[in-house]
Specification:
Two copies of one chain form a homodimer. Chain A is mainly alpha-helical. Chain A has a single domain, classed as Winged helix-like DNA-binding domain superfamily/Winged helix DNA-binding domain (Arc Repressor Mutant, subunit A, Orthogonal Bundle), CATH 1.10.10.10. Helices cover 48% and strands 6% of the residues of chain A. In chain A, strand 1 and strand 2 form a beta hairpin. The two termini of chain A are 27 Å apart. In chain A, 38% of the residues are buried. Chains A and B meet through helix 1, helix 4 and helix 5 of A and helix 1, helix 4 and helix 5 of B. The first copy, chain A, binds a DNA duplex through helix 3. Chains A, B: One of its GO terms (cellular component) is cytosol. Chains A, B: This is Putative HTH-type transcriptional regulator, rrf2 family. Chains A, B: Keywords: DNA-binding. Chains A, B: GO terms for molecular function: DNA binding; DNA-binding transcription factor activity. Chains A, B: It holds the Pfam family Rrf2.
DNA sequence: TAGTTGTCTAGTGAGTTGCTCAAGATTTCG
DNA sequence: CGAAATCTTGAGCAACTCACTAGACAACTA
């Protein structure tokens, strides 16, 4: 029941990028050094965030990465879903990636006792992470 | 960010055991069949739950497993922690298994921005799972 | 004491995580 | 233009975890 390093690194990288938001770009090695993240691994993360539309990048000598969306418009939930997949603790309660459980005897019945509890957990997690924005994050620094 | 099959199977096995609570014992193959769980895998789970003090077992011909605690006194949180480890999404916010992050640059500083958010998530999860008892579970069946 | 059950320890195949490496594309600067 | 700096892509890999299996052993009961 843990988040991956990918999510953690991704969030920490975004924190750095928030600080130069609107200003200069950051290169991967700058972010990597400041946040103690292996450069090549960080790269994969930054690219994923770019593909998801959070970052822009420029190649070449004065290249680097920069935030493309305002820190107020980026939530922890978004970032974690990009890097770690759905938030739901079991897939039969996921809203973004629902899957019927194959082996559960309750799957056929009208209601599964586990589903209710897990649904509540899912909602609680999503409620927090989808309302936490990067800006709120940076302020508490 | 998912619970393991172990937890899921464990909870479903406990549901079965709730139904015969106070009455007869259940053998592993009975539970396994009704809940579609591989017997030998289930066994490991039952043993873990036994070591944790939730179940009693008897060997031999009329052997089997039975609940040793009342369903009202067993919470989902307990069970999941036994089978899956701590609930915290990152270990620096775990109450049952705290660990300082080795590489995080905020670890040294008074406050880590990630920690606050993750702490809230941890509390939310624990709040739900530690108040959900097996009895509440069985009733909604 | 024979057969049935739980107990324990080890092992295994598939998949994931966290990370590395190498070759290429694009940009800037001299 | 050409060289250097940067991002881009894709492949690869060791360690670990997950879900499950196997087999020897201990205890209970008839």
């Amino acid at each position: 029941m843990k988040f991956s390093k990918k999510s953690e690194y991704g969030l920490r990288a975004l924190l750095e990028l928030c600080e130069t938001y609107g200003g200069r770009v950051l290169q991967r090695h700058e972010i990597a050094e400041r946040q103690n993240i292996p450069v090549e691994f960080l790269e994969q993360i930054l690219l994923a965030l770019k593909r998801a539309g959070l970052l822009a990048s420029r190649r070449g000598v004065r290249g680097g990465y920069s935030l493309i969306k305002s820190p107020e418009d980026i939530t922890l939930g978004q970032v974690i879903r990009i890097l770690d997949g759905p938030l739901a603790p079991i897939s039969c309660v996921s809203k973004t990636a629902y899957q019927k459980c194959a082996d559960c005897p309750y799957a056929a019945k009208p209601s599964c006792p586990l589903q209710q509890a897990m649904g509540e957990v899912r909602d609680a997690i999503a409620n927090i992470l989808d309302h936490y924005t990067l800006s709120r994050f940076a302020h508490s620094k």
